[in-house]
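Please predict the structure of the following assembly.
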Amino acid sequence: MSHDTLPRPVKTDGPSAPRSAARRPRRHWTRRANPLAGLGSLLWLVVVIVPIYAMVSASLTRQDEALGRNALQPPAHPTLDNYNTVLNSGFGHFLSNTAIVAAAVVGIVLVLCVPLAYVAVRTRNRWSGAAFRLFLLGVAIPAQAVVVPLYLMIAKLNLYDSLLAVVLPTAAFAMPVAVLVLTGTLRDISEDLYEAMALDGASPLRMLFQLTVPLAKGGIGTVVIYSALQAWNGFLFPLIFTQSDGPRVLTLGLFNYVSQFGVNIPALLASVVLSGIPIFAVYLVARRALVGGLMGVGGK
Amino acid sequence: MTASSTRAGRPHAAWALPGVLFFSVFAVAPMVLAFYLSFTEWNGLGDPRPVGLANWQRLLDDPRLTQSLWLTALLTVTSWAFQTVVSLLLGVWAAGRQRNRAVLSAIFFVPFLLSSTAIALLFFALLDPNFGIIQQDTLGSSSGAFLAIVFVGGWQFIPFHTLLYQGGARQIPEVLHQAAAIDGAGRYRRFFSITLPQLRNTMATSGVLMVVGSLTYFETVLILTQGGPGTDTAILPYLMYEAGFKSYDFGYASAVASFLVATATGLSLLLVRMTGFGAMRSTREGM
């Protein structure tokens, strides 16, 4: 199958000796198989696939068959009962809470970080420099280190056990990387474009919306994905700042299934599979944006 | 004329204020507050009561702190080594544009889509001695539990770092490889003399993210091992959690947290140094 997609020289190219000679070094380093690397990648494929396969197959297994069975064995009597059990224990509610948190976090991060990065790149003075360095330092603050004082603050603000108690700190901790990604993107916008707009008398606000934002779409997309993933992944803040079922998010719902289902491992794994499905669906649809955006972070 | 036309249209620095304020309230102030709380006694109810250096004295005498610091360092270094080697190799390999690589890369990315909690639960089940893939008590032995945490962290985050390396490798100008190939450099020679040096920025970025990230393996530890067996996987964040939210000893927990902040600040300064993020330049310059 890979043969069709490789850009091979067409037949008429073949006999032309000087051309193929000129191409040789290039073919040499891109095309020759590297068996060691190929083998390594297949090995990693096994490492990735086996746990996923074991999880899906176990989630389809009847509970009475689960124990003592080899985890790699396919289920003898496949069943969706485990999924029913999970869906009937508040799964949808937890999922919608997570979606609300993610949307709010993304919104806050964008509204606060885009102007910040814009200032950091466009207005270079003492204040903007200091603001930028604050976020540089912030990259490495682990959430665990501040969870006790945040608990005190959340309690004093009367936000304990609400979704807002999860949203606010999650957004704050997504900001440093967002600022770094955005400044990285904005720096690549040519100064000439700004000057051209300035000559037309455009205000900084108009430049932001008509020039900066459209040209920084890639970086903004990355920030959306990154902060949504942070919210999606969040565990510690919900664990400590919420208590009741009302504001419970998905990660915490999963965690609670451990005690709720006890040794019912198939149901537990069904809940894990279900939790992966929404974001997997997003991945299938928006793979290019998701992967492409994050890939850029490393090249910077 | 030129001076005014370049200054015109520059936003006022105050535009950054809302972001700075928000971040200061919910991230920076708590950090300072954590340090203050480490000099108090507080059980979560009422108000913190100053107790001077008591928490710090107790902390420095606590053998669990030494063990925890050592475990945290060991976990960080081991995870860094494991993840760097695998994601560097996979990323460079995946940077080729053949179709089979695109398909495999898409599959490789899937673990990253699950939350840390989901992944920890998955491996909690798969490592169960009565149910799992390996029918022995991996999490019951101290080295087994430690290696499980390293492996599970890698399983989750290697896809992300692979992506960073893939992006980095694709930015290496092709002419460098062509020139070396013409000079007769073989595949492995080119990897060590061109690819690796060209990826140093990526390595710095990814490395710091890995190091900071391994401080957040808290979920994995909480779900997989509860710090056990005994206290053999009680890394710093877990120690803090236990002191605070299990023993309701928030002053003591804050002293542990201050250790975390110190480590993190050190790392962050390293980040600024190593990656040159601080220099306000386009990264495309000099390409």
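The first strand of chain B starts at residue 40 and ends at 41. Residues 1-6, 278-287 of chain B have pLDDT under 50 and may be disordered.
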